[in-house]
Amino acid sequence: MVVVMDSGAGEAQIEAVIEKLNGFGFDVHRSTGVNRSVLGAVGVKPEFDTRRIAVMDGVSDVFRVTEPYKFASRSWTDGPTTIEVGDVTIGGDRVVVMAGPCSVESEEQIAATAAFVASHGATVLRGGAFKPRSSPYSFQGLGSDGLRMLRDAADAHGLLVITEVMEVGHLDEVVAATDIIQVGARNMQNFPLLKELGKAERPVFLKRGLSATVDEWLMSAEYVMAHGNPYVILCERGIRTFETSTRNTLDLSAVPVVKSKSHLPVFVDPSHGVGIRNKVVPLARAAVAVGADGLMVEVHPNPDAALSDGPQSLYFEQFGELMDQIRIIAQAIGRTTDQPHVARSL
Known about the structure:
The protein is an alpha/beta fold. Helix content is 33%, strand content 18%. The protein folds into 2 domains: 2-64, Phospho-2-dehydro-3-deoxyheptonate aldolase, domain 1 (Alpha-Beta Plaits); 83-332, TIM Barrel, CATH 3.20.20.70. Helix 3 (107-119) links the parallel strand 7 (96-100) and strand 8. The chain starts with a strand and ends in a 14-residue tail after the last helix.
């Protein structure tokens, strides 16, 4: 249930409504906007008469949220959510680009990549330290050393850091080293991990599972949000279908579908979406055109020698061309790739 307060409702009126809802057994989450406050009352009470709250002073409207996800639903807020990390605004007018290698392999490799992507407009450096691989014999990442290299390279070039957390036991170490925590497709429904991420003071970048529906994806976001962390970024990275000509089937229709259902920012990862280098750039362009709030792209100084995902990683010159192209597409649809400076809020 969502309770919308009047724009002029005072703090005492809001607290009175919260106390009343608590008295009926609801857990209440408050969202305070520029003009009004919205209260989300969580609890399975189909018989509850909403008029008990609607008649209270300062209440503008009360309505039930029919979707199984409450905080991720558009009903929870009257506009798209923006997330400010450092001087980067995610979900605003700017198309944000996260770029870097699949795995951190060496200090030289990650430093060279950070320098190049920063000089061409990326604002977030991606790179895996703990790598989930289908084969137990494949490169599993450098672990703690990889985290340190990633952080040092990003700091040297004014970039934020995003990396994947694999398990709850790695969470404190990953939080300390990164600005945004990635949850990979294989962990989208790792509910114990999602609950712990609800307590983390970092935005969570939630990739869609290989066979997940949009509603299942949003329910995973709900786990994070319901446990206290409202800063969730969704990422479409391709799903498993009958088609075998690409690594996955990149579902670009998910971007407008999710935006009609949720207020959360939506990114697209075309690298994992197709797994073939020469198809990454056109799909990245299409992702921006369809309304994605940002891209996650794999870039490597020498993809042919990469220890993981080399065939889908862009060469430096390809990434530079992509940034030039998406700048034009963003402008055509009323967006930008230029980043205004904002105060740090996280």
